[in-house]
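Students often ask what a holo structure prediction actually looks like on paper. The answer is less mysterious than it sounds. You provide the chain, you provide the ligand, and the output is a string of discrete structure tokens encoding the 3D arrangement of the protein together with magnesium ion.
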Amino acid sequence: MKDTLRIIIGKRKLKERVSQLANQISDDYKDKNPVLVGILKGSFIFMADLVRKLKIPHQVDFISVASYGSGKRGSGVVRWLKDLSINIEGKHVIIVEDIIDSGLTLSYIRNNLLTRNPKSLKIVTLLDKRRRRKTKIPLTYVGFSIPDKFVVGYGLDYDERYRNLPYIAWLRNERDD
Ligand code: IMP
Ligand code: MG
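The corresponding structure tokens follow.
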């Protein structure tokens, strides 16, 4: 199957926006020593760039869930693959996500983390496909709102490919026709 990539957010724009998000978080979390919780695998590049721009003390941890199988369609079924190693009770937690689509995955994760009694729990997502939302979810920091198109790059994959692209691109293949 032939894939076509079209860049929708370039390298420079990503860098600039990630810096802005980091500045905002640095202002909002002064003296709060937040725990940034990345959702693997998609968030790993965003997380790496974001924390290098933070100006405040913080901790980093990851969880891994499987929500997508290997194709493009979300099942809403979440399988827990890796849990936190930090105890977040009484801590200020920021979930770091690559993209929010239906919101089902994140909603499940958020509810799970809330049962561990963090002092606060907010979400930063690089991308937001707002029109696809199936459940209400409060987003504090959003990098870019994007249309309902399947995108890859900057950590996001299609069948584990394209995560390394330094930009966000719309992936179009024959299945779209
Ligand atoms: P949700 O539960 O429907 O919000 O699914 C969220 C997860 O699906 C994200 O964390 C991504 O891993 C994956 N996902 C959703 N849309 C895309 C996309 O356009 N490209 C790559 N992965 C996506
Ligand atoms: Mg993800």
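The two ends are 12 Å apart (CA to CA).
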